[in-house]
UniProtKB/TrEMBL annotation:
The lineage of its organism: Bacteria, Pseudomonadati, Pseudomonadota, Gammaproteobacteria, Oceanospirillales. This is IstB-like ATP-binding domain-containing protein. Residues 1-81 form the IstB-like ATP-binding domain. It holds the Pfam family IstB_IS21. InterPro entries: IstB_ATP-bd, P-loop_NTPase. It comes from Marinobacterium nitratireducens. Gene3D superfamilies: P-loop containing nucleotide triphosphate hydrolases (3.40.50.300). GO terms for molecular function: ATP binding.
Length: 93
């Protein structure tokens, strides 16, 4: 079963390992032109290629991911920072 919207959060926090690159390639290939993928990242898109690691797979993955993509660059402070600390009711345990 395909998920209509796949969300990948915190993309690029660390470089992909070989097995993860292969898995991501299969996922992007399967989803390309069929369903939507949302990527959230603080890593600039011009650094995604290096984060994937393997040149051939990076080309293939990013071609499928970025083709017909809509970019929404956001600026400003982190919402966590703006909202400040947790209230007493929100603290764990």
């Amino acid at each position: 079963m395909k998920v209509q919207l796949l969300q990948i959060d915190d993309w690029g926090l660390e470089p992909l390992k070989p097995a993860h690159r292969n898995d991501l390639m299969e996922i992007m290939d399967d989803r390309h032109g069929q369903t939507s993928t949302l990527v959230i990242s603080q890593l600039p898109t011009d650094q995604w290629y290096a984060s994937i690691g393997d040149n051939t797979l990076a080309d293939a993955i990013l071609d499928r991911l970025m083709h017909n993509a809509h970019r929404l660059p956001l600026k400003g402070e982190s919402m966590r920072k703006l909202l400040g600390q947790l209230t007493e009711d929100e603290h764990l345990g």
